[in-house]
Amino acid sequence: MKASLSLVTVVFGVVGITVASPVEPRAPTMKRADVGVNVAGVGQCPTDCWNEAAANAGCDPNADDSCLCGPFFDNVASCTSSLCNAGENLAALDFMRGACTP
Fold this sequence. Notes:
Blueprint: H1 2-20, H2 32-42, H3 44-57, H4 65-68, H5 71-83, H6 86-100
Helix pairs in contact: 2-3, 2-6, 3-5, 5-6
């Protein structure tokens, strides 16, 4: 009898957790438009990399998440790691990663 009560408790506990779990994906932690502003606030080098990547990406990172978190992200990361100091590089990537992480 004690084992069956434990089983019932476990089953209801699992059902309760499943029902209480969110069904919708989380909202992005940062809006796309804010990412560019924040990267620009880091310094001139990341701003230049952002502008260069926007010109070379072939898509609009301000309108398309697959662009922002795809080829555009790769171009900005490559540029900042090559041309900017470590602090600027890490700060710019942190803002972009925040926008691309669900």
